[in-house]
Amino acid sequence: MPERRFRSTMAKWTVFIVLLLAVLLLTISRLRFRRITELVDHALGSKQVLWRRLIMNLCMSVALTMMVFIQEGPIYQGRMLGYELYSIVLVSFGNLQIPVAVLRVVLALVRLIPHNYYDGDNTGDKTNLAPSLSIFYGMVLGQGILYLVACTLDIFTFIPRRSLARHGGFKGHQLGMETIKLYHGYVLEKCMEKDALAPKKISLSSFAMDSLNSDSPKIQLHGIQLIHNLLQTEPTKTQLLAKLTTCPNTSARLIKMLDWTDPRNATIRLFAAKVTAELAKGLRVITIPWKIQNVSTLLDYGNKQGERGNPLMDKDDDEQETMHDPVLNGSGYHEERLIAVPDTGNLLETQDRSTQQTPIGTSEQSSWIVRCWRCMASIPKDEPLADTDKDLLPALGMSILYNLAGCDQSNCEEIVKATGLIPKIIGFTSYRRSDTTYDTQGKVLVTSSLQLLHRLTSIKGEIGITLRHKISKHAFLLRNLAKILADSSSSQELRKLVAGIIRNLAVDGNTRQEIGCIRVIITRLMQEFLSLGRPLGTYADHKLQKVAGQALAMLAMESAHNCSVMLYETGHVFIKELTTMIHDDKYRCVAASLLRNMCLHARHELNELDLQAISYSVREVLERIMDAEGAELEILICLGSQICKVIPEEFARELEHGCIKDRFVKRLGDALNANMEPSALCPGIRRVILEQVINMMEHDLHYASCFNNCRMMEAVSMVEDTASKAENYCIFLGDVGLMEHREPLTSLVVRVKRFLAVRSTQ
């Protein structure tokens, strides 16, 4: 009999030990013990979560069953079963405070019912026992009631939590409820640091900013996403940006997140890039070290060449294999361009396991009662975070650079200094069409790169010259721009951006000649400007037409080759179209500038039809000169001067037959006197007036008497005394002059005085 009992006891202990080992193994496998984790993974296979939960439940069921049957006698077995059922009921509440509070209330009520506290011994030393115990149990009763009220109210806290989640921008997002729970804990911690009743205003933005400095990736994710949500609406956007701008530590933390290349931090990096793109609109990078370098790392994705290099310069295959991108893991050029962002939920689950933190939302581990209630009270879970077009990391990186370049010129200096940044940006202008997926996301990257290049090439001052030079010397830029223009399926927005970039780069003489050698660029710009074969209807059409015309006007300056290409591109219809556009207010300046350059640089290539079309426009040009001001007046007088040189007879005939000769001469004198101080908007207006006067007197010296009658000699002398270096340039970008004239202004003054002096002696 003792031997049988011993064997039974050993069997029971063996079963318990096996169950204990199974539970311990499953529990420890969630920690970072590689060998144990590999053992469990090998045993459970791919469905680890399902098998782990099933085994845990089976072990608990077996243990509970054995606890009942190892008792001797039905009375003890029934008592153990009652204890287990009572424990299950307690656990089903999901909160032990509720049964504890109920127990407090019940015990207090039981003891407050009249009792004989003295137990028949009513001596004097026990006189105060009954009142003391009544006070004690009254306090216990009050405490239990307060606990019950608190637990009851806690059940309905989902109402203000959902309201706060909506205020934080979490619309239908399960992560929002978890963030609000973290926020409540944060507020409680701050209040407990000092007097709990002291007035404190702890905003969501303060919580979000402090969360960025946490060591927990999970809390960082909640904080960065909350910041992103708050930036979507006013007035929280303005207030939060002001806080971030004045908090260098938080800004620096955001910038560091851009360089987190670990795949587990991909979602944090994504939202950090989105927030930084907004913050960059008012940020000076000189205050944050290494910012441009961190932003530059965002452009590393998708900008790697998939094809092999020069066979004479290739490295060994083994060495190339070790240099594959750790995030993309060598998935090829196509997959590198399609940057996938992991699901937020998966990220949180992974980080929970790695950091061994207690989950904020415990609904999955709670009882079915709590799960049912929370299912009704919680916010529905969002769809997984997708790698949408605008969430591409390179696009966000270029958006950050775009905003930085528009904020302060010191940011542009940092962009210039960043090693390899400009080639990365230009690399995304490569317009390849392989499949539908790439075509969709590739266009996003192309658009982002063109927008950034357009802004960088528009920068004024010395830094602008440096940027344009660095951009224009890239070997593949013009080829990529030409392919975008030549692609009939490219959008108007892309073509407008390309035309603007070409216009900005054409201010440099060498670049202007390089562009002119790519015939397709001028061909496409001519088609867009003249709108050949298509009607103009929308505002976007007119905007593209104007920018294309501006690009052509810049290409035509000081370039006889480019003017000849434009002239022959349309079979000499170009001149007629330009003379027609002069009547349109939207295109008058562009058309006048182009027509002036045609007359100046391609004069000998104009045929009779071209000269006839120009003669028809003389009257319109003269009339517009009478009313124009500023830069428009400079361009029109410049055109009038060249028309007077190309067809002097028709020009003189219009002055005489139109009875506007005296008015025109007076207008030139008044304009010269009114512009004694040249401006950056029209630096060459006095120069073009002097050129107009010279060309008129070269054709007919009798005009000298008209100019003398208008006291032109005095005005010219004033020009000679006030001549400035600024008048030697065609245009100004900021405070830097571009395209310097060959003939100085003083030389023109001498020529005008010579003509006027000759006439006065006759």
From TrEMBL:
By its UniProt entry, which SUPFAM superfamilies does this protein fall under?
ARM repeat (SSF48371)
Protein's UniProt keywords contain Transmembrane: yes
Q: Which UniProt keywords apply?
A: Membrane, Transmembrane, Transmembrane helix
* Name under which the protein is recorded: Uncharacterized protein
- Span-the-membrane segments of this chain are 54-73, 85-113, 133-156
- InterPro entries named in the record: ARM-like, ARM-type_fold, Armadillo
Entry-linked PROSITE patterns: ARM_REPEAT
Name the species this protein comes from. Answer: Setaria viridis (Green bristlegrass)
